[in-house]
Amino acid sequence: MMSYYHGNETGMPVGLLPDPYYWWEAGAMFGQMVEYWHLTGDKTYNDVVTKGLLAQIETTEDFMPTNQTRTEGNDDQAFWAFAAMSAAELKFPDPPPDQPSWLALAQAVFNEQAHRWDNQHCGGGLRWQIFAWNKGYDYKNSISNGGFFQLAARLARYTGNQTYADWADKSWKWMIDIKLMASDYRVFDGANIDKNCSAPSELQWTYNVGTMLMGAANMYNFTDGDPKWRSRTEGLLNASQLFFPQSLGGDIMQEIACEPQKSCNNDQPSFKAYLSRWMAATTQIAPFSEGYVMKKLRASALGAAKQCSGPPNGGTTCGRTWNTAVWDGKLGVGEEMSALSVIQNLLIQKVAPPVTLKKGGTSKSNPEAGTGPVNPTPIDPVLTRKVTTGDRAGAGILTAIVLAVLLGSTWWISF
Fold first, then answer.
1. What is the mean pLDDT of the chain?
2. Theoretical Cys-Cys bridge with 275: which of 53, 210, 262, 286, CB 3.0 to 4.6 Å?
3. Please, what is the Cα angle at 321 between 316 and 325, to 5 degrees?
4. Secondary structure of residue 310 in the 3-state scheme
5. Extended beta strands in 133-250, E state
């Protein structure tokens, strides 16, 4: 997987994957490598991961880099926050003293997203996109809102701060009320605000049920085993069965919305990585899940290992269809990430569980991160700069040209 990353090479952009991979997937990749270090003890990539993460925090220290703010969505930002949160929970080596802590970076993202909570449409929730000019600004999707729920729940567990737990409760309730999550815990893709989110798309993806599962398990742990959160965690585990179809034996993971149809785009092959990592993490903070989860991860890991037989890279290239030992010809960051995730997480019971501030955590808290004078959702300076005399003159010339064209058109029509 790391062979696709060139940010550690001279002259290459640090923290970014090459085209066609989007910014968010680099954050997901670094999060995976934090977990790789924790699960294996291999420090080979630690310096690369630290530099990659810190290169994208910007001076605002919130994963809102200027090279992405024109297109960045709430879900994109969340995946970088997950990486920082994992670094705090797993005691990944702290950043240099002149940099914000891993925890503070996650808190900054939480504070900014809480500020974006939109009560004017659909009774709450986050929009998919941060900026109005981006396609999807009128859509409220489960990975953005489930990501916010997960981040709030993990912050609650790590810091012990009830405010984060209250936001997790609020997010969960909104997902249920708006029917992005069904009563049987199926998690749908999202809904448009023009219909008041009343007609959600019923597409289901592994990472949507996964992010809700991770959040629910953290709330179960935070509340010292509240039966409500146990029931919700169990419900989401049951809902995840959809992605382990009986046609494949009932234990091998499949991205059912695109794999059978061979229609997965560049993003979607990585989704199984997140369900794998979040199912595995659930076993440490909600131990009752271990039997169900590990049975599926073992079968899926075996399938993934057999699929990692493609001729590139000496016959170790991973495909995406884990139910066959014959390489399917697919390759990329997502395929590698998903295979690595499900395989490495077989080690989850051999490592320490995520820490908290009270129990072993060293990452320093900054509850005010992301709330400073810098606009948490920067606006293009072109849209806010003062209008000059030159601008007015240019506008006058443009107006004259438009009027001339319109008058000419009117004269032509009249004849």
1. 91
2. 210
3. 55
4. strand
5. 139-141, 190-192
